[in-house]
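Section 5: illustrative case.
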């Protein structure tokens, strides 16, 4: 009953920025009970890896070491949307980026998140 839809991906030069959005719909992830949200990414031939996560209220965030200081996760519960602001992008950031959601709890292990979007492609050229 939960639908997550990512947008904002595209092609960007190294050093540039992109902002990804993930819009949630459905009863489980209403504005009232959106729960924790996270971002993961997967490059071709590689396993899915954790990028960032944010708590229900936005008061707690977590970032992978590889993106800390460059990426910022945020949310607007009134719009039922979570964002990932990506700055100082490099080719290693090239991947399909997935939005994940849970009613409670946030983890770096992607297998623990019950709700997923379809992904949006981010390509960073050198």
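Designed sequence:
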């Amino acid at each position: 009953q939960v639908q997550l839809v990512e947008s904002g991906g595209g092609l960007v030069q190294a050093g540039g920025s992109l902002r990804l959005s993930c819009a949630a719909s459905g009863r489980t992830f209403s504005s009232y009970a959106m729960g924790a949200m996270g971002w993961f990414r997967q490059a071709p031939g590689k396993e899915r890896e954790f990028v960032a996560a944010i708590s229900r209220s936005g008061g707690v965030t977590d970032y992978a070491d590889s993106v800390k200081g460059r990426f910022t996760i945020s949310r607007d519960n009134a719009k039922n949307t979570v964002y990932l602001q990506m700055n100082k992008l490099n080719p290693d950031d090239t991947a399909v980026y997935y939005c994940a959601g849970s009613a409670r709890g946030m983890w770096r292990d992607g297998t623990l998140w019950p709700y997923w979007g379809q992904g949006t492609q981010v390509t960073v050229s050198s």
